[in-house]
Specification:
single chain, alpha/beta, 14 helices, about 10% strand
Length: about 300
């Protein structure tokens, strides 16, 4: 279920110690500190100035790393890769994947969200070939845009830090490749499981809307524990992520990043900007950094 908000890409100490998003990483073999900030991909760029010390931390670093090097997303080949990953296999459409009853429930959901559904030929042409996971992601984005007037998808919080680095002539890098993100976001579930999760979104609209609102509220409150609580919330049925799905989305990726971050930080003071859901919890990046021998302190 977390993947639905995974644009979102979005885990423990006391609440007072985690009511913040920016952390300094020092000690061990680092000659100068690096920093890590938790992001939310749909957050407004203006929120940057609500995070204490963030502009100074950015100024003190020589390079910026995100989950991805965002400049790679402008590459036509990568755009095509992403588009292809979001499409069903040739000859397949959603109406062939879903039962008549499931299509009826999906159409009712779409009408409540968009005022139109898959019976509209243009809608069916644009959305009917998307994988269930890609469609869930689109619905989450549209729900957010509906609730937040003035949302600008071309000016997102995630990309802001790399944009500043580029303007200042600083280095830019990514902890992951686009191929890995495509695998995690769109190819880690079977089509049958994707369909099940799409119907979970359709059939539990009230729960999912509240979950999304609580995630956003926790992020803007800089409350990592509140964010973790929301993302860990369960319905108590097959709609809940399996341990394997949680590992693919969060835990395995965090562990992989920790194999790369030490060398990156040792080479140059680095400003990391990654999804806030990757920071807290036993398997979160903050705890993994401490286990690796670094001092990790909130910036206030």
């Amino acid at each position: 279920m977390k993947k639905i908000f995974i644009t979102l890409a979005l885990f423990v100490a006391a609440l007072s110690a985690q009511a913040q998003l920016l952390y300094k990483i020092s000690g061990k073999d680092l000659k100068a500190p690096s920093y890590i900030v938790g992001t939310y991909h749909l957050a407004e760029v203006a929120f940057v100035d609500s995070i204490p010390g963030i502009r100074q931390a950015l100024a003190d670093c020589q390079q910026v790393y995100g989950e991805l090097d965002m400049s790679s997303m402008a590459n036509p080949e990568n755009i095509m890769k992403m588009q292809q990953a979001m499409m069903l296999p040739e000859g397949k459409t959603l109406d062939k994947l879903l039962s008549a009853d499931e299509m009826s429930r999906l159409n009712a959901y779409m009408n409540s969200l968009l005022g139109m559904d898959m019976t509209n030929p243009m809608v069916a042409q644009q959305m009917g070939r998307l994988t269930p996971q890609a469609l869930s992601t689109q619905f989450s984005l549209l729900t957010y845009m509906k609730k937040h007037a003035g949302f600008d998808p071309q000016n997102l919080f995630d990309g802001y830090f790399q944009k500043v680095a580029q303007e200042q002539g600083k280095g830019i890098g990514g902890l992951e490749t686009l191929d890995l993100q495509i695998k995690v976001l769109y190819q880690s579930m079977s089509l049958e499981r994707q369909k099940q999760m799409l119907m979970c979104l359709v059939d539990n609209q009230e729960f999912m809307d509240k979950l999304a609102d609580d995630v956003i509220r926790a992020f803007y409150s800089q409350n990592l524990e509140g964010l973790k609580e929301a993302m860990d919330r369960k319905i108590g049925n097959a709609c809940d992520n399996t341990p394997e799905e949680d590992a693919a989305l969060i835990g395995n990726r965090n562990a992989d990043w920790l194999t790369k971050m030490p060398a990156i930080m040792a080479a140059h003071p680095t400003f990391f900007a990654v999804g806030a859901g990757h920071l807290p919890g036993e398997k979160g990046v903050l705890n993994l950094l401490r286990q690796a021998g670094y001092t990790v302190e909130g910036v206030r």
